[in-house]
Amino acid sequence: MSLATVSSTVAPQIPPYLFNTDHRQRCLAQLRSKTTGLEKYIYLNGLKERDPSLFYELALANMLEIIPILYTPTVGDACSNYSHIWRRPEGLYISIENKGHIRDVLRTWHVGDSARIAVVTDGSRILGLGDLGANGLPISIGKLDLYIAGAGIKPTTTVPICLDLGTNTQKFLDDPLYIGVRRKRPDTEEMDAFMQEFISAMEEVFPQLLVQFEDFSTDNAFRYLDLFRSKHRVFNDDIQGTGAVVLSGFINAAKLSSQAAGTRLEDHRILFFGAGSAGIGVAKQLVSFFTLLGLTEEDAKKKIYTVDSKGLITADRKGLQEHKIYFARTDYNGPPLTRLTDIIKYVKPTALLGLSTIRNAFSEEVVRLMASLNKRPVIFPLSNPVSLCEVDYADAVAWTNGSVVFASGSPYKPIEFEGKKYEPGQGNNMYIFPGLGLGTILSKARHVTDSMVEQASIALSASLTKEEKDADLVYPRLTRIRDISAEIALAVVRAAQKDDVDENTLFRSLSDNALLEVIKSKQWQPGAHRSPRL
Ligand SMILES: NC(=O)C1=CN([C@@H]2O[C@H](COP(=O)(O)OP(=O)(O)OC[C@H]3O[C@@H](n4cnc5c(N)ncnc54)[C@H](O)[C@@H]3O)[C@@H](O)[C@H]2O)C=CC1
Ligand SMILES: CC(=O)C(=O)O
Ligand SMILES: [Mg+2]
């Protein structure tokens, strides 16, 4: 027998000194030795492949450090560069060329009947980065990592999907390493036929699955939500998840702002800078909330002003896109208002929400104007990733002399201003979709109803501890996300029961405390099946 044969048949021995240090510390040191976000992302991706349990253990124990790598902002870099950093298949690509046999492609995914949650993107609007085509897969993977870490969904029941339908971004079509099909995106007719086949095939192959649509371009985001939501178990994260998370933060922020001003929640006026899937999704969620407070829909709608790249959206504007019509103002008859400062002077908003993808759109002049109109202005620059955020946290604090109530889409660190510590909120749908998904899966809800989304939002806003309230936070600390997801799931299950869409009726007889315990007991824990040393 040759030496080469001997060495290939003997299992490699792990030298005992490898265990002198906790391997988690070794992995963290390796992670921290990487100098760029993208290198850290690649490192974590490799760790997940080698040892998924350890990967999630590290993510849970070091959330504030690791989530911004797996998710926004760094996942944006990963998507932008995905064709170049690709190592191995780690999700399901369904290409436009698979039309006619999509179910066969779905059957190649290894989890079959046990699949519970799929995040599906077509890569056409990844964060605020535009049409990234097949490079969009990491957004589905990152969202599912949050389902696993944040809600305790079992990793083996998740399905990350990127629909590879082409791209209209020429730079990718010209890139020899581009991973997707080299063609422009289909027209509506071709895409509709593909999507109909896709959603039917999903239901056939994965009968218990919840589908989260993610980062579709705005028209298609609304289109496929409207087409599928009453027939299938689906929701759109950018419209509904964002609506819920921002409503939740708004409720807490508006309380702080109203307390300072001596006004009521009903007195708020909200200006949306950006009127796409996210902006309009949030605006609709706010209308629904104001009606819960007793306002008529018409009066609730009057509280909302929307702005797009052409300025304040008014009903007399020609060729308005469908999704902008509902909020178009009928009470402004002057010349078009295009400058944000002029719009603010006209509207006098108490809250300014940015979902525009325009970096630094909330200039010093804008922020100071908001502070001059409000004792505690609510300013939420929600565009992702950080490179597209409408205003940095430190600037917002300095320009309002510390009075701002702030939440951004991507994370900022706490800061010190004139000797006082200030802590930002992160208004990101990551606080909602894990719990919304968990509640939907456990109740086996046939559909995701409006009330399930709304109750998720209200449960999140009610989840602040006294300490978090005392620190003027509008969202709970991310490190508590598992417990918060369980509380949200409880509210979602109850809403599903009220709407009579829960196919699992066993939970109906349980008290809230008992149900919460059941939900927590279902949360997957990393590390349960691994060697205690690792
Ligand atoms: N924080 C969170 O949880 C979430 C944040 N987002 C972020 O929101 C942003 C927008 O997403 P979508 O609504 O889906 O995109 P979109 O492209 O549909 O909407 C962008 C909107 O901004 C407007 N806009 C563009 N340039 C403008 C300008 N110069 N002045 C005023 N308005 C301008 C557009 O007209 C459009 O109405 C993205 O950056 C995305 O990452 C989206 C979902 C969730
Ligand atoms: C957070 C998210 O879903 C987005 O920026 O698109
Ligand atoms: Mg999104």
Question: Which terms summarize this structure?
Answer:
single chain; 534 residues; alpha/beta; seven-stranded mixed β-sheet; 14 strands; 10% strand; globular; disordered N terminus; binds 1,4-dihydronicotinamide adenine dinucleotide; binds pyruvic acid; binds magnesium ion
Question: Can you walk me through this structure?
Answer:
It is a single chain. The chain has 534 residues and is an alpha/beta fold. It is built from 24 helices and 14 strands. Helix 3 (37-50) crosses helix 4 (52-61), helix 3 crosses helix 6 (74-80) and helix 4 crosses helix 9 (137-151). The longest helix has 25 residues, at 237-261. The model is unreliable at 1-8 (pLDDT under 50).
Write the layout of secondary structure elements.
Layout: H1 3-9, H2 23-33, H3 37-50, H4 52-61, H5 63-70, H6 74-80, H7 82-85, E1 92-95, H8 102-107, E2 117-121, H9 137-151, E3 158-164, H10 170-173, H11 188-205, E4 210-214, H12 218-228, E5 234-236, H13 237-261, E6 270-273, H14 277-292, H15 297-302, E7 304-308, E8 311-312, H16 322-325, H17 340-347, E9 351-354, H18 364-373, E10 378-381, H19 393-399, E11 405-408, E12 415-417, E13 420-422, E14 425-426, H20 433-443, H21 450-461, H22 466-470, H23 481-498, H24 512-522
Parallel strand pairs: 1-3, 2-3, 2-4, 4-5, 6-7, 6-9, 9-10, 10-11, 11-14
Antiparallel strand pairs: 7-8, 12-13
Helix pairs in contact: 2-3, 3-4, 3-6, 4-5, 4-9, 6-9, 9-20, 13-14, 13-21, 17-18, 20-23, 21-23, 23-24
Bound molecules: 1,4-dihydronicotinamide adenine dinucleotide, pyruvic acid and magnesium ion (MG).
Magnesium ion is lined by residues 214-215, 237-238.
Binding site for a divalent metal cation: 214-215, 238
Active site: 71, 143
Protein name: Malic enzyme
